[in-house]
From TrEMBL:
This is Phosphonate transport system ATP-binding protein. Gene3D superfamilies: P-loop containing nucleotide triphosphate hydrolases. SMART domains: AAA. Residues 6-214 form the ABC transporter domain. InterPro entries: AAA+_ATPase, ABC_SmlMolc_Importer, ABC_transporter-like_ATP-bd, ABC_transporter-like_CS, P-loop_NTPase. GO terms for molecular function: ATP binding; ATP hydrolysis activity. It holds the Pfam family ABC_tran. Keywords: ATP-binding, Nucleotide-binding, Transport. Signal peptide: none annotated. SUPFAM superfamilies: P-loop containing nucleoside triphosphate hydrolases. PANTHER family: SPERMIDINE/PUTRESCINE IMPORT ATP-BINDING PROTEIN POTA, SPERMIDINE_PUTRESCINE IMPORT ATP-BINDING PROTEIN POTA.
Length: 219
């Protein structure tokens, strides 16, 4: 049996000494597509942060707040996904004068998210949905062993969101996604983890669950 990518055992998770989740046991294996579900504020982002902190493999992130720099161009924000693959001198050069090959790599992922013509646009001038697509493009450029997405398509229309979510999970061997849409969770996940009342109350293969089972997390 291969070792898990991360294993949390009886962990208390929270912020600034304040516990949000208690008694958390969760291990993530390569190849899984885990969706985290639960009411707003229950601790999905908190759990994602703990998983991120524990994974030693290469991780691409799609944070809930997008994590973009509004004063920089779309190109530069997407390129941030691979900043740690390059040295400081190279990154400074890219900031001032991106090479043609770098532009081409970024344009390829911008095409995928439907922002092919907006590479030079300042992120501060984009709509919410466009910003989310920049964050998705940054993760797609980064690639990696695991993608962690915190409501990664909530700002998109349902059809575009479904397409990009499907694309995202096919680009990474392993995914953990916090979602709000139960049907999307059932379509996307191999495993669903449900949070309620400060802990994990459900951890089961998606194939064994129905929408009715998942609605219980929100009552
Ligand atoms: N960076 C942070 N610093 C301090 N407290 C935080 C931080 N992130 C979340 N919290 C707190 O942790 C608790 C759980 O929030 P969290 O964002 O994990 O929930 P969530 O299930 O992801 O919610 P939502 O679905 O609304 O995004 C909340 O009380 C929130 O205020």
């Amino acid at each position: 049996m291969t070792a898990p990518l991360v294993g949390l055992q009886d962990q208390t998770l929270g912020w600034g000494g304040q516990a949000v989740l208690r008694g958390i046991d969760l291990s993530l294996s390569a190849g899984e597509r885990v969706v985290l579900l639960g009411r707003s504020g229950v601790g999905k982002s908190t759990l994602l942060a703990a998983l991120q902190g524990g994974i030693a493999a290469r991780v691409a992130l799609v944070p809930q707040d997008h994590g973009l720099v509004g004063s920089l161009s779309v190109f530069h924000n997407v390129w941030m996904g691979v900043l740690d693959d390059h040295g400081t001198a190279s990154n400074l050069r890219t900031l001032v004068w991106p090479a043609k090959a770098q532009r081409a790599r970024v344009e390829a992922v911008l095409e995928v998210v439907g922002l092919g013509t907006l590479g030079r646009r300042t992120v501060g001038r984009l709509s919410g949905g466009q910003r989310q697509r920049v964050a998705l493009a940054r993760a797609l450029l980064r690639r990696g062993d695991v993608v962690l997405g915190d409501e990664p398509v909530t700002a998109l229309d349902p059809s575009q969101g479904a397409l990009l979510l499907t694309h995202l999970v096919t680009q990474f061997p392993t995914a953990v996604l916090a979602l709000h849409d139960i049907d999307q969770a059932l379509r996307t996940a191999t495993r669903i983890v449900g949070l309620r009342g400060g802990g994990i109350v459900l951890d089961a293969p998606a194939a064994d669950l129905t929408a009715v089972d998942l609605l219980a997390l929100y009552r």
